[in-house]
Design a protein that fits this description.
The structure holds 2 protein chains of 2 kinds.
Chain A: H1 7-15, H2 19-31, H3 33-43, E1 51-56, H4 63-76, E2 81-87, E3 96-98, E4 113-119, H5 131-140, E5 145-149, H6 159-163, E6 166-171, H7 179-183, H8 186-189, E7 192-195, H9 203-217, E8 228-230, H10 239-255, H11 258-284, H12 287-302, H13 307-316
Parallel strand pairs in A: 1-5, 1-6, 2-4, 2-5, 6-7, 7-8
Chain B: E1 6-10, H1 19-30, E2 34-37, H2 44-54, E3 58-63, H3 68-81, E4 88-93, H4 97-105, E5 110-112, H5 118-129
Parallel strand pairs in B: 1-2, 1-3, 3-4, 4-5
Helix pairs in contact in B: 1-5, 2-3
Classes of the chains: A alpha/beta, B alpha/beta.
Bound molecules: guanosine-5'-triphosphate and magnesium ion.
Amino acid sequence: MGGMRDIGALLERFGEGKTAAAARLITILEEGGDGAERVMDTIFARTSGAYRIGFTGPPGAGKSTLVYRLAKLFRQKEHEIGIIAVDPTSPFSGGALLGDRIRMQKLSEDPKIFVRSLASRGSLGGISNCTDEVADLLDAFGKDLIIIETVGVGQSELEIAEKSHTVVVILVPESGDGIQAMKAGLMEIGDIFVMNKADHPDAVLAAREIENSLRLKDIPEGNWQPPVLLTSALEETGMEDVIREIENHRRWLEERDLFEEKRRLILRSRVRDAFMDKLERKLWHDSSITRILESRIGEVYDGRLSPYRMVEELERLVTVE
Amino acid sequence: MAKKIRVLVAKPGLDGHDRGAKVVANALRDAGMEVIYTGLHQTPEMIAEAAVQEDVDVVGLSILSGAHLTMFPRIIELLKKQEAEHIKVFGGGIIPAEDVEKLESMGVAKVFGPGTDTRDIIKYLKQEFE
Ligand SMILES: Nc1nc2c(ncn2[C@@H]2O[C@H](COP(=O)(O)OP(=O)(O)OP(=O)(O)O)[C@@H](O)[C@H]2O)c(=O)[nH]1
Ligand SMILES: [Mg+2]
């Protein structure tokens, strides 16, 4: 590898606005460990609360194409944009084909837009485990709008809700009657629903079905009522509506001080996640825990001790007042 | 765990098919690498900018159009300008044997001839970048 491995020098270059340094620091964040912590310790104080928008929805729904169109429009409004595009890591090879950039090619011509593809690596939540950290870094790099595109495997896309101010759920007519969306929990997390591929004749009907399922949820008056929009990212129609609703949602949050509250919640869940990660590693490598585990796992194997009684014994070694 | 190799696979120029590039991208993914695939019709500027933002170890270019003698040095120069000369560039496609040495003297890390077995590319990348 070689190059600028020294974190101190990288941080300095980063402060001068060098793209290569920012990109290198993201790699360090992805690797985790002490290097990542050191980067975060410096970066975090330089963040200034960039707005985070999550885009989720089934594979092939048009997330990347839509993000591309919207990013261009947001640029006309003087926003500086960071895009984090997550694609799945193959559980078999550990490799990943990161293809979201294909739809965003032209963004590489604009130096005010930074696009980074991340492989989901070990994470199951449809985003990479370091998404928050990368978003912070882009924020500290001067981006005031961070767009996160999830994997969209339709399993647990819920994590994106913990990491964004506004969640846009993208659906397509062929994803069926909205039941799929409900099963995937997407109806719960969407602040804005977009029925993309509206050039398809079934789109209007499909959008109406989503509206119906939202109505069934009976969202209390005074809460945000998620709109359902029709777009064709391919033919570039309906884009202004999406921008307007994102801005509406942002204003809605801000007027109610929910923006700050959301930020507090986001940070709280981050501290919890990082703490639990550390604790898990620490406990699992603790010598007295390992000793008891090794000496008595045979009893569990023989059926003399239930796994839960074993856990109880291990738990006794950990005291929290 | 071994370090993840990150590769950007790009197809510069105007000629319109990327079957070869896709085969390579898939093979590298199956060999455990993270492959950023950027598609057809890339300018050198777009390729270099994407490579820098993605912090890849290496860029693989598939060239069929005969533009290799301008394309490769241009991308290498753009990477240097961005303080990203640590990103290496390799290539494959239809490149006449007499140009290979020329390209290597321009700083191209490796040139694979037409019909190269993807296993050779994988072996090379693992050797150099893991
Ligand atoms: N007809 C039609 N096709 C579209 C539209 N939007 C996107 N597509 C096409 O749908 C395919 C997938 O688009 P992407 O933007 O890559 O979708 P994605 O959701 O990002 O896909 P993944 O990241 O792989 O989950 C591409 O072939 C697009 O050209 C649309 O509005 N109408
Ligand atoms: Mg995509």
